[in-house]
């Protein structure tokens, strides 16, 4: 059956490209998706599937009932865009100023609709059911996954699979890894309150800028001196704001950053250490402080059995040389909420275009 399905996918490929380019011309930001879910639902309805719209407010879920009894497998894609200006000059360039599909969600959506189409054509031969989950608002917290789960998108699902295009892999390959593949993605904000004054009289002030500078350096010691060296953690300070004038000691300083971990015990250690060190540095100099730690998307953990199943099939289809065994990535895993709820899961990564080696959102190639 595999060869037959892939032959059909090749036959309808031009139609999928056309659909994808339409989405690319008309991107919609997270929580503002209106046109996109309607188009998705129209396609799935035309296939004769049981379609639910407005799942979690904007999601679309369709069920294909196979001709033979068996388990229920869910396949997931996302369809929101990013607030990025589309600067490429092609006929399918985004028509929405400041918004584009820079992370490949238009490709994800089109590919999943293609799979839904070819599977619908052989549904009598399928054992079990297939649930097609089209998620809205993947790019921002809290995201659409939580609302869709609460609205029952995973009810009765035995296993869920998801795929994501990846700009750091060669074209025509599939990346795969069992166990942890994407990290917990947390953020923090530290506010330090000192006592402002004139730059000529620092002894009459409590300088939050100096304390913030010390804190930035001290925070780096959490990973190097508190975390088990056999475990992974990242702490990055991304912004540091304090003061308005060159000769004035400010009243406050604000530091923001991100923390990435896999294990929950390391995650807890990072949060508590940030709070402890901040309190120690600020109170020791007569200042006060406030730490806001936000736990974002949890880590993505791929079930070993399902991962090996996909690895075996991928090897048969595209050859062992094109199946890449990935290392864990410290990038945040927005797939996790759907996957954590399901019995088993796996994440596949492919590359849509050559040239981008940073693993960052990039305009997809001519797909």
Can you tell me about this structure?
With 367 residues, the protein is of the alpha/beta class. The protein folds into 2 domains: 2-178 and 303-350, Zn peptidases (Aminopeptidase), CATH 3.40.630.10; 183-294, Alpha-Beta Plaits, CATH 3.30.70.360. The protein has 8 helices and 16 strands. A 6-stranded mixed β-sheet has the order 1-2-4-3-5-16. Strands 7, 9, 11, 12, 13 and 15 form a 6-stranded mixed β-sheet that branches. Strands 6-14 form a two-stranded parallel sheet. Helix 1 runs antiparallel to helix 3 (105-120) and helix 5 (208-225) runs antiparallel to helix 6. It is elongated and about 80 Å long.
Keywords:
alpha/beta; Alpha-Beta Plaits; 2 domains; 16 strands; elongated; disordered C terminus
CATH superfamily of the largest domain: Zn peptidases
Structural class: alpha/beta
Shape assignment: elongated
The main β sheet shows up as:
6 strands, mixed
Proportion of residues in extended strands: 25-35%
- The radius of gyration is 24 Å
User: Number of DSSP helices?
Assistant: 8
Gist of the model:
The protein is α/β, with parallel strands linked by helices and 367 residues long.
């Amino acid at each position: 059956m595999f060869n037959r399905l892939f032959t059909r996918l090749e036959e309808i490929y031009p139609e999928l490209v056309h659909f994808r380019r339409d989405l690319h011309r008309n991107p919609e930001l997270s929580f503002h998706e209106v046109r996109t879910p309607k188009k998705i639902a129209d396609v799935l309805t035309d296939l004769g599937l049981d379609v639910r719209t407005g799942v979690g407010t904007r999601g679309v879920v369709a069920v294909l009932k196979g001709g033979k009894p068996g388990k229920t497998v869910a396949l997931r894609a996302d369809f929101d865009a990013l607030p990025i200006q589309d600067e490429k000059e092609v006929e399918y360039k985004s028509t929405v100023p400041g918004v584009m599909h820079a992370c490949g969600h238009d490709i994800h959506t089109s590919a999943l609709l293609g799979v839904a189409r070819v599977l619908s054509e052989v549904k009598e031969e399928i054992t079990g059911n297939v649930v097609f989950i089209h998620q809205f608002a993947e790019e921002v917290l809290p995201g659409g996954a939580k609302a869709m789960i609460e609205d029952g998108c995973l009810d009765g699902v035995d296993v869920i699979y998801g795929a994501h295009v990846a700009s750091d892999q060669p074209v025509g390959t599939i990346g795969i890894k069992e166990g942890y593949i994407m990290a917990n993605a947390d953020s923090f904000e530290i506010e330090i309150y000192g006592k402002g004054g004139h730059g000529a009289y620092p002894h009459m002030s409590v300088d939050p800028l100096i304390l913030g500078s010390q804190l930035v350096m001290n925070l780096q010691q959490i990973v190097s001196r508190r975390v088990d060296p056999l475990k992974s953690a990242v702490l990055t300070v991304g912004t540091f704001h304090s003061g308005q004038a060159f000769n004035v000691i400010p009243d406050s300083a604000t530091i923001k950053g991100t923390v990435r971990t896999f294990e929950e015990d390391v995650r807890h250690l990072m949060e508590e250490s940030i709070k402890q060190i901040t309190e120690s540095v600020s109170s020791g100099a007569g200042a006060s402080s406030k730490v806001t730690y936000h736990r974002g998307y949890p880590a993505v953990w791929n079930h070993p059995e399902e991962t090996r199943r996909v690895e075996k099939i991928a090897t048969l289809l595209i050859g062992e040389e094109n199946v890449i065994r990935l290392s864990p990535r410290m990038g945040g895993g927005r797939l996790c909420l759907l996957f954590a709820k399901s019995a088993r899961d796996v994440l596949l990564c492919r590359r849509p275009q050559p040239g981008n080696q940073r693993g960052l959102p990039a305009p997809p190639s001519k797909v």
